[in-house]
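2024-03-11 09:14:02 INFO worker-7 job=invfold-0412 stage=load source=structure_tokens
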């Protein structure tokens, strides 16, 4: 079971989850809970595939997918920050639009009538419009390792590269310092001249861009087209990965890979003839178990800190 192809699939499946997870990490650092990642990925996936089809360019599709992700996130921010709408409710609305609204658009775009079967899929992406894969020189010739690490979609490599870039941005740049300051104490950040509203918009815009990349990956590489609910909970899994990774880019990446492993394992087991209905819940069960483990670990950490504080007081 644990072949080079299996580990290759883990990285491939992890990529869209990782994009959304990094968006959740930066959002949480700024005190913004973007639970609309699922819907944003769905919307971006649709517009990315449509743009690639209409322009004949995968790059144009990718750019539009990211721009749409940013636009959706900024609209969420406008309702939450300016109109004072509860951001959780705003995220739920985006998720509902991502599920039902995109299907409505597909039916309108494909000119389906009541007398015909209503479309729930768009097979627009051909091999020429697919985000290209890269064969890495030298690495591809290494036995086993080359089969695991070489030949991935361009976006897969970008997802893992962004882990490093996000960490650098958060901990080595003034912008990252401002993001963390706003998340930890917005009043203190405001008192030293930091625009809290601007930083929150930047953070939620970043999360939208990451969701856009994830959506483009799904429709322009993974599924070769758009279909209803194709994101399949990856946006919600990303929120769990962010929590399990303690809100840090590296930890979130490792958590995303755990979920990627669970999904790859489910697909592998299903390919052996086991009923897919029995194995499809594996990633979601892993999500629940992961959050339980995270909650227990966080509780143990708090108790340990309280015990240490009590000992110091006695001393």
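2024-03-11 09:14:09 INFO worker-7 stage=emit residues=315
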């Amino acid at each position: 079971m644990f072949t080079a192809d299996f580990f290759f699939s883990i990285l491939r499946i992890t990529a869209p989850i990782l994009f959304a997870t990094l968006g959740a990490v930066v959002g949480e650092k700024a005190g913004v809970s973007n639970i609309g990642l699922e819907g944003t990925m769905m919307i971006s996936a649709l517009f990315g595939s449509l743009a690639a089809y209409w322009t004949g360019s995968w790059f144009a599709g990718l750019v539009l997918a990211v721009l749409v992700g940013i636009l959706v996130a900024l609209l969420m921010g406008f309702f939450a920050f300016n109109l004072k709408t509860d951001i959780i409710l705003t995220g739920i609305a985006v998720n509902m639009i991502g599920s039902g609204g995109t299907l409505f658009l597909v039916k309108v775009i494909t000119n389906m009538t009541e007398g015909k079967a209503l479309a729930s899929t768009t097979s627009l992406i051909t091999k020429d419009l697919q985000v290209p894969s890269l064969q890495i020189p030298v690495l591809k010739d290494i036995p086993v390792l080359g089969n695991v690490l070489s030949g991935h979609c361009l976006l897969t490599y970008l997802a893992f590269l962004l882990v490093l870039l996000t960490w650098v941005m958060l901990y080595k740049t003034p912008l990252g310092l401002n993001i963390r300051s706003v998340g930890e104490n917005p009043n203190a950040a405001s008192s030293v001249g930091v625009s809290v509203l601007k930083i929150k918009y930047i953070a939620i815009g970043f999360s939208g861009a990451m969701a856009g990349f994830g959506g483009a990956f799904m429709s322009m590489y993974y599924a070769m087209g758009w279909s209803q609910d194709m994101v399949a909970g990856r946006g919600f899994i990303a929120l769990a990965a962010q929590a399990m990774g303690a809100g840090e880019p590296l930890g979130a990446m490792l958590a995303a890979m755990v979920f990627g492993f669970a999904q790859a394992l489910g697909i592998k087991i299903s390919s052996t003839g086991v009923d897919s209905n029995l194995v499809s819940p594996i990633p979601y069960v892993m999500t629940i178990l992961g959050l339980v483990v995270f909650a227990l670990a966080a509780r143990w950490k708090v108790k340990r800190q309280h015990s240490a504080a009590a000992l110091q007081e006695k001393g």
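2024-03-11 09:14:09 INFO worker-7 stage=report msg="The longest helix spans residues 282-314."
2024-03-11 09:14:10 INFO worker-7 job finished
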